[in-house]
Specification:
The complex is a heterodimer of chains A (165) and B (112). With 165 residues, chain A is an alpha+beta fold. Chain A is built from 3 helices and 7 strands. Chain B has a 5-stranded mixed sheet with strand order 1-2-3-4-5. The radius of gyration of chain B is 12 Å and the shape is globular.
């Protein structure tokens, strides 16, 4: 196991491991985690020699999911953490996002209608169409909360991203 | 994230370079708003040097375009590469904010 260089300074609580081509990120519940996690994701992408199109899709999904968890998944000031894994399968990248915050299932949200004008345009929910477009599959599950103590994920979002040429 | 502001024939020209992700947006959003909204001029935004766009950047463009439209001015985007263009299309931004391929087209649209 090797720690991903550059993450030590990336934010309190951040940790990234790349072992046997599998990325394992532990991120603090903070907006800085997006940048911290991206460093790890870049190492994962380099290890697997992913195409720029695939990397862009992974980065968009990562940014949208983490920013949503950080902004909406926890009570303000709570210090819960987020765990992200990425692994390569034959024809796709599999991302998992685990957190123990407020459950949010992106599949349960109706896709926002296309705004016909600036006045009608919504400023929220713009990440949902990006997630739906860039993911090949999306699955969300929420399990009963475990007793306090070690990090036990309650919510798991599993996203697969097809390998683009 | 870099932001450069100029003026061409009464149109504000904003050139952005870098990643318009959460960090990038937070680093330029105050400057971007200050360079566009109070001027009373139409604005065109050069995205040629933008390598990444996600929903927070789209949100910045919508809120700025809306503020300008209150003054009867448009915000026009141009020069997006394939990855950025796909986000513009997927979020529906292209249907409510004019998007052109070239700077000349953007200037013509902004002056119209």
């Amino acid at each position: 196991m090797t720690a991903v260089p550059g993450l030590a300074d990336a934010g309190a609580g951040a940790r990234a491991l790349l072992a046997d081509g599998v990325l394992d990120l532990a991120l603090a519940n903070a907006i800085e985690s997006i940048e911290a996690g991206r460093t790890g994701l870049a190492r994962f992408a380099a290890h697997h020699v992913l195409s720029p199109a695939t990397i862009n899709r992974l980065e968009v999904i990562f940014e949208e999911v983490i920013s949503n968890i950080v902004r909406h998944g926890f009570a303000p000031g709570s210090d819960q953490s987020i765990r992200v894994t990425a692994r390569r399968e034959a024809d796709a990248i599999v991302l998992t996002f685990d957190d123990d915050g407020i459950p949010f299932d992106p599949l349960a949200v109706a896709p926002p209608g296309r705004a016909a004008s600036l006045a009608e345009a919504r400023l929220g929910g713009l990440g949902i169409p990006l997630l739906r477009r860039y993911a090949a599959t999306i699955a969300h599950e929420t399990r009963p909360a475990a007793p306090a103590g070690d990090f036990v994920p309650v919510n798991r979002l599993c996203v697969t991203v097809a390998l683009e040429p | 994230m870099e932001i450069v502001n100029s003026e061409v024939d009464g149109v504000t020209v904003i050139t952005l370079a870098g990643r318009l992700d959460t960090m990038g947006v937070s680093s330029i959003e105050m400057a971007f708003t200050a360079m566009t909204v109070p001027t009373g001029r139409a604005a065109i935004v050069d995205l040629t040097g933008v390598s990444f766009l996600a929903s927070l950047g789209v949100r910045l463009f919508i809120s700025t375009a809306r503020a300008l439209s209150g003054r009867n001015r448009e915000l026009v985007l141009f020069g997006a590469g394939p990855a950025v263009a796909e986000v513009i299309e997927t979020t529906g931004l292209a249907e409510i904010v004019p998007v052109t391929a070239t700077r000349d087209e953007a200037l013509a649209r902004a002056r119209a």
